[in-house]
């Protein structure tokens, strides 16, 4: 339909007519529970007009979220409705309005009222099963999205051929004779092999390995384990050990710029931390939470620096962030020469060779990497082609070997640590196939490896290793030999092994803990409110001097006091009642005259509504004994007034 709609594509609404598309909702009168039974667990295409495949995991309306779950063990899964959390009600409405507004103003599509949302997890790709079949793999809860049900399609005319599920191919086709593979058996794990022959269900491979390789792997791990443990101190403790303030410590460990007479800027700081760039120096500084920690190496370097050039540390607490002149730091005759002397001293201590790395990674030092390289060179020099042993293994299943092209599918969720011995199992990339190395650095999504032999595309990893020996690779390109995690039985009838389903996500450095709303997941899912077995009682604040019916104090009365003695102000109570009566303040005023309150019969004080007792803040009608003025014993004065009253004078 052509009409004025104000479609906004390039930042401003259109003032001309636009072609508007109206969507007819085929699920307009459908119940959410019926849609949940029909769609949950099925694939769906979302993001119209640019369709993307996903899987429906839940259905929600403005009040409930419908999920399929197993209620009792052994019973089939059924649809369960969970009410939204209190904050989820407005969240759901805002999400529905946002979807409707986006299609209306951005795409020129009238979707109608969005009453039902589908919770969809997008397609991530294909994963290979142990049987060799490829099935679809969907994202986790953290990437779950919500889509209007009328904007989703259950099928398309032409599907993407890259993501079509495939059955396991025959062994002779997947592993032709002579193809290179890696053996995953318990013995000789990770050894390079070659396919000799295949049958319908099994295959035979020829292994080639050095018998001493298993013992070599443990020696590399020993070098990392025997590293000298360096203690770290928080910033306030480090400042106390050096004898300076925390402000001075922050300046000298970062950048401290000084301007010489020729307007040249010179950094006299140690450059151990970079807050804005989120960088640290291995073995010198680190950040835990919001605070910086410094090692014993940093403390020793600062003490030596302070002893050598105390003038710098005396000026660090000066107010202001402006760069200081050399004459202000060194008031002597030759300040520029002093700055040059400090610069040369820092260079002699290796400060300018410090390599800043990310806060969110863990790495080995240059000294440890040099030891690893020397040990690898020793092992390589002692090996020769005559010491290679060969063995043939027959009748093993297909999951007992790893094809290089299958590494990206099968080596998921593999865990690594510093010093682990690895071998390259991917036949694409710059690192040669089956070359071994040692992990010297762990990043968020990759790791740094120093390899046993140099190769053309190798780097120095920031001068941490020799030329052409290092590279940064992904986790699924290498096989961990120190910590075998994909060991498979060579018996064809054995069940497939249970793989690790926990993703490897190394977390180093400061990561603030962001908790989701109560009863909800971080992925903006609408979850039920938290259920508690014993809900806390609601306590209403009450005036302790205000009683209720049946309460000893009565309504508006002060705390109950024994009839044996009169009530006096608490601050004036003494052991002697007579002295207390003489010093007690008046309880009423009559024409400006203070009239003392005498003792009445049976030791009772006047009572009634409107009575006043010093030292107490009661409600209306505060009586001395908490009585409401009705049914008082004989001799008691019964007042009805709401204001102050005076007791009659004795005749």
TrEMBL record:
Give the range the annotation lists for the signal sequence. none
From start to end residue, where is composition biased (Gly residues)?
A: 608-638
* Residues of the Exoribonuclease Xrn1 D2/D3 domain: 170-394
Q: Which Pfam families match?
A: SH3_12, XRN1_D1, XRN1_D2_D3
Q: Which InterPro entries match?
A: Rib_uL2_dom2, SH3_12, XRN1_D1, XRN1_D1_sf, XRN1_D2_D3, XRN1_SH3_sf
5'-3' exoribonuclease 1 SH3-like domain residues are 414-480
Boundaries of each 5'-3' exoribonuclease 1 D1 domain copy? 2-166
Origin, by domain of life? Eukaryota
**What protein name is recorded for this chain?**
Uncharacterized protein
Specify where the region named Disordered lies, as residue ranges.
511-564, 601-651
